[in-house]
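Late entry, written up from scratch paper. The run itself happened at the end of the previous shift, but nothing got recorded in the book at the time, so transcribing now.
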Amino acid sequence: MSLMPTAAPEDFFARAHAGSSRRAIGNRLLNVACVGLALVTFVPLASIIFLLVKKGLPLLSFDVFRLLPPAAGMTGGGFGNAVVGTLLMVGIALLLAAPLGVLSAIFATEYAPTSRLAHAVRFVAKLLTGIPSIICGVFAYAVIVLTTGGFSAWAGGFALAILILPTIILTSEQALLGVPKAYREASYGLGATNFQTIWRIVLPDAVPAIMTGIMLAVARAAGETAPLIFTALFSQYWIHSAMEPTASLSVLIYNFSTLPYPHQVNMAWTASLVLVIFVTIANVTAQVAFRKK
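Output as recorded:
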């Protein structure tokens, strides 16, 4: 049996060069496709911002923050009570959900990660993320509104707390898991207790990611409409107590956008622009204030 050369050296190098050229062209085409598709993701956001600025900017002034909404068919006015109501109800939701969510994540991650209770916490959090917001509104209506006998900011905040709780739990858990185990081992090696390790070593390192999750929750809470219709309803006036119907930006946008009056529709656009600006400022502030040094 004799071994015969299958191709001349010139042919071998020519085929290798051709194959390398095809791979280079394929890599360039894939890079172009990835960059192009990545840019496409900016199109919806850019379109929304352009439309909000175009439609909402003409009525944006200081007066919209200090005046009450105009009556149907009237011009002028603002939505200062809706801004105050939104901040109040989002604050109530954070007051209720943030401590509960962060502490639940600490328990499920640091104290008993393999316990049945920890698995139950994760399961409930994932289950709550898929429940429609209107269901949370109906639940808050049954629990708070029917019990207290009226719509209120507390009821709205309670409904929003249910909505943002799973986001806070899941993002806080991932933030805690992102802390290197070497930090914990070094702390235990120095004689620190589990409590000291969590509160002095783990939590400070995880705070930036936890705050990012909380800001995501704030963004969702500020934009929810359906739960507030069932709980806080709406008011044309300034709020004097957390136990009375309360205006919010999202419900104002919903109400005004359905009216057949151009001024109210334009004001709904302005309120939408203000809502987006608030959410953006909150996110940027959190990122800057809590980023790792």
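The CA atoms of residues 100 and 165 lie 8 Å apart.
(Scratch paper discarded after transcription.)
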